């Protein structure tokens, strides 16, 4: 993950979440001092208007991080995601799942092949238009030191209060926000009301829904929530995934079961693609992962 120093304003939505998503402190320091390896093209190609979600294509993608030449994070990755499709990425740690999402956001450029969104190579679009088309729900959602309303409005700064509330309702966040001491005006964050993990996730989902992007990138939380929270977050995610294209790094059984396709990754390669039942029946890497992650019996 690299912070784009030049377009922080454009990226403000992505920025905070990425800082948080980056996690480890040393990583963060690395990020803050990093310069973006990507730049806007001299003559950006406009992304076409789309309805019902973006089309995404990875074509012969080979990629290594600039700091690790000769150590490919992705090799020969081919993937076609249809508009509206929900694709779950699964695989062991280091398989390349987050790298896929980072390339879609063009935090780095590939060394081989190409990544296109709605038919336009991500290197040919302006960073602002590319990222404007993409919503992100990170594993660990950032809550800013401001009101609940402003926390959600972050998803689309020009949104009206009514639009913020509609997004909160869609993300099943409205009810708990209304019960906060000052409702939508309640101050959150470090010196404000502390939210539960599930509540933070729903704020983050509401932000993404307010932005209403044709492409949603989701990094599902690994940490367990209580059953009630889990149900609400799942319901919110399902709403968020409807009518748009979603790529989700999946950690939940419910998510992989509902995905249109599951992409199984290992060592930077796609090793299998299918639906949950198919892949379990095949008894390969997916079946083993499923038995570890979801407690399913390997076939
Ligand atoms: P996890 O489930 O642990 O998040 P992942 O499937 O998302 O794993 P990636 O984070 O995409 O895997 O990592 C793919 C490879 O790239 C790994 O070998 C990883 O160590 C390496 N990698 C990831 N991020 C960076 C980075 N910023 N700089 C250098 N190497 C990186």
From TrEMBL:
Q: Which domain of life is it from?
A: Bacteria
Q: Where is the ABC transporter domain?
A: 56-292
Cellular location(s): Cell membrane
- List membrane-spanning regions: 1-19
Question: What is the name listed in the Swiss-Prot or TrEMBL entry for this protein?
Answer: ABC transporter transmembrane domain-containing protein
**Whole protein: which stretch is covered?**
319 to 617 of 617
């Amino acid at each position: 993950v690299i912070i784009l120093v030049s377009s922080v304003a454009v990226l403000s939505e992505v920025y905070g979440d990425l800082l948080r998503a980056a996690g480890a402190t040393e990583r963060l320091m690395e990020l803050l001092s990093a310069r973006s390896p990507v730049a806007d093209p001299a003559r950006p190609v406009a992304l076409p208007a789309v309805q019902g979600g973006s089309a995404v294509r990875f074509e012969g993608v080979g990629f290594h991080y600039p700091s690790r030449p000769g150590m490919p994070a992705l090799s020969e990755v081919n993937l076609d995601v249809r508009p509206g499709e929900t694709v779950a990425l699964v695989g062991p740690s280091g398989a390349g799942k987050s790298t896929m999402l980072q390339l879609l956001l063009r935090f780095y450029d590939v060394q081989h092949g190409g990544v296109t969104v709605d038919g336009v190579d991500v290197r040919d679009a302006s960073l602002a238009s590319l990222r404007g088309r993409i919503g992100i729900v990170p594993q660990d959602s950032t809550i800013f030191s401001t009101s609940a309303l402003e926390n959600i409005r972050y998803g689309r700064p020009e949104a009206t209060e009514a639009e913020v509330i509609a997004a909160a309702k869609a993300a099943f966040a409205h009810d708990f926000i209304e019960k906060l001491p000052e409702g939508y005006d309640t101050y959150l964050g470090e010196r404000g009301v502390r939210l539960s993990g599930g509540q933070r996730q729903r704020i983050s989902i509401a932000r993404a829904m307010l932005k209403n992007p044709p492409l949603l990138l989701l990094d599902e939380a690994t940490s367990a929530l209580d059953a009630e929270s889990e149900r609400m977050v799942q319901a919110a995610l399902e709403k968020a995934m409807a009518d748009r294209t979603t790529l989700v790094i999946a950690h939940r059984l419910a998510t992989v079961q509902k995905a249109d396709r599951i992409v199984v990754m290992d060592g930077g390669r796609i090793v299998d693609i299918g639906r949950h039942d198919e892949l379990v029946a095949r008894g390969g890497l997916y079946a083993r992962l499923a038995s570890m992650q979801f407690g399913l019996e390997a076939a």
